[in-house]
Amino acid sequence: MFSPTATEISVGLSAAAGLGLVAGDCAYAAMWPTSQLFGPTLIAPPRPDELALTFDDGPNPVWTPHLLDLLASHDVRATFFLVGSRAQSMPTLVRQIIAAGHLIGNHSWSHPNLALSSARRIDEELSRTHQILAQIAGAPPRYFRPPYGARRPEVLRIARRLGLVPVLWNAMTSDWKNPSADAIASQLTHKIDRLHRQGHAANIVLHDGSHADPAANRAPSIAAAAQLIAL
Ligand SMILES: [Zn+2]
Questions:
Q1: Rounded to an integer, what is the distance from CA 98 to the centroid of its chain?
Q2: Residue 171 and residue 11: Cα distance in Å, rounded?
Q3: Cα-to-centroid distance, 20 and ligand 1 (Å)
Q4: Which residue in 107, 200, 207, 211 is the catalytic one?
Q5: Distance between Cα 18 and ligand 1 center (Å)
Q6: Count of alpha carbons within 13 Å of 199, Cβ hemisphere only?
Q7: Where are the alpha helices (DSSP H) in 19-118?
Q8: pLDDT grade for 19, boundaries at 50, 70 and 90
Q9: Are 153 and 38 in contact (CB under 8 A)?
Q10: CA distance 129 to 112
Q11: CA 121 to centroid of ligand 1, rounded, Å
Q12: I need a labelling partner for 118 at 20 to 30 A (CA). Which of 50, 66, 90, 187 fits?
């Protein structure tokens, strides 16, 4: 796994400045999941037969246990990018995720757009989540996914300072908008097939929680995960 240094990130920033990025380029660099202009992020290696299932915005007291049952029944491991404030209120569920052999990662404390947040806010969001996850898990997390994929150089600098590897994705649909499980699964399958043809692993995002609405229905996302695992 690569481990870019702070020097590489600052070089990336200098390069971006040197290129004279205009607003559209900056929006691309800040929000497009596979952009590396604001610094290196982990997405997927050139190993087309590998799939990573990642689940964001949990833990959720209703849907995360369903998902854990599904994954256990197929002996599949996944990565859960957890919202710190939710993790704090559900430490037992977080421990169940870890005990089942899954990875947990930092998904900020309250899910703001970090590209639009002050350096102080970014630090608070990441550090507070880092501390609570370390306290619950007994060891600090190693991975961080910025909410909405939004970042700027300061976000990546603070993540690195905490020893976190920023992780984006290359296969996502709007599963949080609650389409049917069939629609989610078929769109993801299409993307996975395309990545496979291009020689890339798939880093797949689904949502087992909602940062905005703890009562959001995630049944379609979990059912889509079941379809993908069956495939
Ligand atoms: Zn999220």
A1: 16
A2: 28
A3: 30
A4: 207
A5: 32
A6: 1
A7: 23-31, 63-73, 84-89, 91-99
A8: very low
A9: yes
A10: 13
A11: 17
A12: 90
Query: For residue 23, how far is its CA from the centre of ligand 1 (angstroms)?
Result: 24
Catalytic status, residue 56: yes
Count of alpha carbons within 13 angstroms of residue 223, beta-carbon side: 12
What is the spatial distance between Cα 209 and Cα 160, in angstroms, rounded to a whole number?
26
**Model confidence pLDDT, tens digit, residues 168-210:** 999 999 998 889 999 999 999 999 999 999 999 999 999 999 9
How confident is the prediction for the chain on average, in pLDDT?
Answer: 88
Tens-digit pLDDT profile for residues 141-153: 999 999 999 999 9
Q: How far apart are CA 122 and CA 30, in angstroms?
A: 14
Centre of ligand 1 to C-alpha 45, Å, is 22
CB count in 10 Å sphere of residue 231 = 10
SS3 166: strand
- Cis before 112 (ω within 30): no
Angle 3-168-66 from CA coordinates, rounded to 5°:
115
Is the pTM higher than 0.85? yes
Q: Which of 34, 43, 37 is nearest to 21 (CA)?
A: 37
- pLDDT tens string 90-118: 999 999 999 999 999 999 999 999 999 99
Catalytic residue among 56, 57, 175, 208: 56
Residue 207 a catalytic site member: yes
Q: Strand pairing of 103-106 and 79-82?
A: parallel
